[in-house]
Amino acid sequence: FIGTGSLRDLLKRITELKIQNATYSNPLTLLPGNVPINQEVMRRLSNREDFHVAYFDLNDFKPFNDYFGYSMGDEVIQLVSNLIKNLIEPTRNFIGHVGGDDLIVIFSDQNWQEQCQAVLDRFAHEVRQYYTRETLEAGGVWAKNRQGEILFHPVLSLSVGVVDLRAEQGLNHHQVAELAALAKKSAKETGGNHLYIQPYQIAYSRRTLQA
Fold it and tell me: What is the CA radius of gyration of the chain?
């Protein structure tokens, strides 16, 4: 028993939090955006918690958008969002949408790896519904890359880069974001529906070198 408060103050605070969540939510997925994500990271850092940050990103998403249209691209982003919301335990973990096709999960659960793998497995199966029979038989689509070259791009896949964060690292939320982005980059370099886990020692050494 810490203290007491009035019902009016409680309702006012709940309303303020709802307004804040609506203001900073991504309009496509309705998930918390960058401001709430940073606040959650800072909260865990302030509490000196150990946690994992998983960065989800689609591979070959731009060519898919160019070939099938942005409306279909939005549907695929919503697919990833729904899979994460349905397959990742929401009580102790925080789910956010950075923007575009980039989503974040901040894990407290110890079985985070199994939950990430479940998302990857379901995505690999369900993404096929967004392709035509011809493009599935071909294994992908021909489209321009970012340099304007027409290349073959395989069926969409999902990369997940995970960084292991420890309280004693003494990080701030900017450094956490940088380490998560590096883990995502390593996952994308492998290609396919892949989970890359950046070990604690590597995350710490990269932070030390860049500090």
Answer: 19
Could you tell me the pTM of the whole model?
A: 0.85
> What's the token pair of residue 4?
């007491």
Pairing of strands 194-198, 157-165: parallel
Tokens of 114: 């199994």
Residue 46 CA, chain-centre distance (Å), reads 22
Answer yes or no: are the C-beta atoms of 62 and 127 closer than 8 Å. no
Name residue, tokens 């690999």: 124
The closest of 83, 63, 59 to 72, measured between CA atoms, is: 63
List, in order, residues 6 or more apart from 11 with CB less than 8 Å away. none
Q: pLDDT tens digit string along 128-171?
A: 999 999 999 999 999 988 788 899 999 999 999 999 998 777 88
